[in-house]
Amino acid sequence: MLEKIKALHEEIAAVAASTPEEVEQLRIKYLSKKGAVSALMADFRSVPAELKREVGQKINELKTFATEKINGLKETFAVAEDSTLDEIDLTRTASPMSVGTRHPLSLVRNEMLRIFASMGFTIAEGPEIEDDWHVFESLNFPPDHPARDMQDTFFISRDTVDILLRTHTSSVQTRVMEHAQPPIRIVCPGRVYRNEAISARAHCFFHQVEGLYIDKNVSFADLKQVLLGFARQMFGPETKIRLRPSYFPFTEPSAEMDISCDICGGKGCAFCKGTGWVEILGCGMVDPNVLKACGIDPEIYTGYAFGMGIERITNLKYKVKDLRLFSENDVRFLREFEAAH
Ligand code: PHE
Question: How many Å lie between the centroid of ligand 1 and the Cα of residue 186?
Fold first, then answer.
């Protein structure tokens, strides 16, 4: 009996298979109910009592060995089958592909332009590298105005103070007025540059949307109504505005506009420094000198202009406190705006 077990052990150790069907045949031959190992079990009854223990153990060992051997053979084919190309499951969900998100400043600029377009404004753009005439001279800046100083403006060359990076997009308004007669109703989005030390609250470049409307009988009341409409569409229908007298060389009278604080709803908080109001833009009636410089008759036409920083509006709308986040392009920051699309 022990001899028989040993022979069968050696026989099984030597078997091999080249297809899954052959493995199955081996399983039937050795491990099925009518197989060789089961046949040994049947013979077990005739084994003398004193040998039963030893023989039983050997049969069990053989059974484990045969099972492992055949499972091992089965597995080699299972792996091979998995890797065959015709097993690709075309109904499986594709793994997600990561897509970019729109920059928060672009989101806010698009929203601002959409609002002004709904009020009849068209978009005008112009160059970022400008000359003194379009940025300052035509806009009634006196020759000794501090904005013309190296401290505030980036000049392109040391030798000439005539070519510079625009400090506001009012230069685009000049460019349009030079070549068109009223009615003119435009908004000018774009990047502007100022020579400021970079901090959480200031940067050497930022973005603006400026607006201009020139026609017969345009009044300050028209300006106020357009700005109120803008503020309510941008920040919600409950938003209040207030205008404070101010000064710009190119507008007279001039004003700065505050909106009721979006964060505390006007009650007063750290963001609005307890006042309930936050400043968002500058505006005024276009100075007659500007119209004259651009070839528009101030005796016939009047107009208003306004200008605001996109960063400032984005700060308020999305509670972004540090300006530097806008140009660092940290994807963790940019991804926070996914939901706003
Ligand atoms: N150009 C001004 C600025 O850059 C903003 C402004 C535009 C003010 C139009 C009044 C009228 O600060």
Answer: 14
DSSP 95-140: PP-------HHHHHHHHHHHHHHHTT-EE----SEEEHHHHTGGGT
Could you tell me where the beta strands, DSSP code E, fall in the chain? 122-123, 129-131, 163-165, 184-193, 205-215, 241-248, 251-260, 277-286, 302-309
Burial of 221 by CB count in 10 Å (0-12 exposed, 13-18 middle, 19+ buried)?
exposed
CA gap 103, 320 in Å, rounded: 13
Query: Could you tell me the two tokens for 315?
Result: 């700060």
How far is it, in rounded angstroms, from Cα 250 to Cα 138? 9
Residue 80 has a pLDDT of: 60
- What pLDDT score does 211 carry? 98
In terms of phi and psi (left: phi > 0; alpha: psi -120 to 50; beta: otherwise), the region of 335 is: alpha
**pLDDT at position 204:** 94
Q: Which atom of ligand 1 is nearest to the CA of 282?
A: 8
User: Could you report the average pLDDT of every consecutive run of 10 residues in the chain (341 residues)?
Assistant: 86 86 88 85 83 87 88 78 68 83 94 98 97 95 81 84 93 96 97 93 94 98 98 95 96 97 83 90 98 97 98 90 91 86 66
Nearest-atom number in ligand 1 for the CA of 254 is: 10
| Interatomic CA distance for residues 335 and 170, integer angstroms | 33
Q: 169 C-alpha to center of ligand 1: Å? A: 8
Spacing of C-alpha 92 from chain mean position: 29
- Positive or negative, the CA dihedral 58, 61, 67, 71 is negative
Beta partners for 241? 259
Closest CA to 311 of 216, 196, 214, 217: 196
The four Cα atoms 104, 109, 115, 117 give a dihedral, to 10 degrees, of -150
Which of 153, 250, 285 should be mutated for ligand 1, with most atoms under 8 A from CB? Answer: 250
Predicted pLDDT at 20: 85
Q: Which protein residues are within 6 Å of ligand 1, measured from CB?
A: 168, 170, 210, 248, 251, 282-284, 305-307
- pLDDT for the residue 72: 85
